[in-house]
UniProtKB/TrEMBL annotation:
One of the record's GO molecular function terms: ATP binding
Membrane topology: Peripheral membrane protein
InterPro entries: AAA+_ATPase (IPR003593), ABC_Ni/Peptide_Import (IPR050388), ABC_transporter-like_ATP-bd (IPR003439), ABC_transporter-like_CS (IPR017871), Oligopep_ABC_C (IPR013563), P-loop_NTPase (IPR027417)
Protein name: Oligopeptide/dipeptide ABC transporter, ATP-binding protein
GO biological-process terms attached to the record: peptide transport
Coarse class of the protein's main subcellular location: membrane
GO CC, alphabetical: plasma membrane
Alphabetic keyword roster: ATP-binding, Cell inner membrane, Cell membrane, Membrane, Nucleotide-binding, Translocase, Transport
Keyword Membrane: yes
SUPFAM superfamilies in the cross-refs: P-loop containing nucleoside triphosphate hydrolases
Domain ABC transporter: 5-254
Parts of the chain that traverse the membrane: none
Length: 327
């Protein structure tokens, strides 16, 4: 599986007054170096929780309960916070939907990017400024001006450029982008994606792109992971997934392809996302699935390889290794 990142059987729960929210129910996800993986699914399917778990940013009342997150040969689940802190923002970085909320409002932009570089290189912030300037130019900003600006002086699009510059300044192996364009104007969205595309190509880092926009996935990603109610339900190359979606949920998602720039949620699939305090038994999709059988209610379908590099969790399909030729 993935040489850069290999997440297996990842379980995360949140302890709330309503009960235990089983947000991730054994997620499987992997990536190779330099690869772009799109993680898709409706709101509440666990896309963001998965990415936060990979960054080890799940906070109380949430908890990683089981599973492995192997990144570059180390199991992040077992690392001390101190060791994790040397990886986060250095070997893997993250950008969010709301760039301004991730910037410190009372510090100049140049200083904030400098801080990130200083941490990774273990040098003084003032010695990072040439690099900060270069990074700002690389993300298409007027370096001199933006260095000395406060976050509120920048537009949403400029702030996201700053975030991308800050995230890539340390040359991480993995950039996680959680809905990086959905808070921006339509015209700016395309520019930001283009910038991400260009820089990731130049720097060779892998990108995990979390989105509910299948149009963006088609343009940007090599591979796609479809999540449903805290489970990985289908994984394939982007080309294969669009050409031959196997899981009934993926079929519904593709019919719901929103026009580029529309940020409302996918509505083509009947029914609603299940309550994860009392999730449906067996296959969590069974109440919405037109093909549900008895076994679907009884047992969770395993995530198995159906054809090379194409994985599905659904009883309609038998794994590659289980298929027997007769005679
Ligand atoms: Fe539908 Fe059963 Fe497949 Fe789940 S396992 S998607 S309920 S057919
Ligand atoms: Mg989210």
């Amino acid at each position: 599986r993935g040489k850069l990142l290999d997440v297996s059987n990842l379980k995360v729960s949140f302890y709330t007054y309503r009960g235990v929210v089983k947000a991730l129910n054994g997620v499987e996800l992997w990536m190779d170096s330099g690869e772009r993986l799109g993680v898709v699914g409706e709101t509440g399917c666990g896309k963001s929780v998965t990415s936060l778990a990979v960054m080890r940013l799940i906070e109380q009342p949430g908890e990683i309960q089981e599973g492995k997150i192997i990144f570059n040969g180390r199991n992040l689940v077992e690392l001390s916070e101190e060791k994790m802190n040397n990886i986060r923002g250095v070997e893997m970085s993250m950008i969010f939907q709301e760039p301004r909320s991730s910037l410190n409002p009372v510090m100049k932009v140049g200083y904030q990017i400098g801080e990130a570089i200083a941490k990774s290189k273990k040098i003084r912030i003032k010695n990072t400024y040439p690099e900060v300037k270069e990074m700002l130019r690389l993300v298409g900003l007027d370096a001199e001006r933006v260095m000395n600006s406060y976050p509120h002086e920048l537009s949403g699009g400029m702030s996201q450029r700053v975030m991308i510059g800050m995230a890539l300044a340390t040359h991480p192996k993995l950039l996680i982008a959680d809905e990086p364009t959905s808070a921006l104007d339509v015209t700016i969205q395309a520019q930001i994606l283009e910038l991400l595309d260009e820089l990731a190509r130049k720097m060779g880092n892998a990108v995990m792109l979390i989105t509910h926009d299948m149009g963006v996935v088609a343009e940007f990603c090599d591979k796609v992971l479809v999540m449903y109610a805290g489970n990985s339900v289908e994984y394939a190359s982007t080309v294969r997934l669009f050409e031959k979606p196997l899981h009934p949920y993926t079929g519904g998602l593709l019919q719901a392809v929103p026009r580029v720039g529309r940020t409302d949620e996918l509505k083509a699939i009947k029914g609603t996302v299940p309550d994860l305090v009392n999730p449906p038994s067996g296959c969590r999709f069974h109440p919405r699935c037109p093909y549900a059988m008895d076994i679907c209610k009884a047992e969770r379908p395993p995530f198995v390889e159906i054809e090379p590099d194409h994985y599905v969790a659904c009883y309609l399909f038998k794994g590659k290794n289980e298929v027997r030729e007769d005679g």
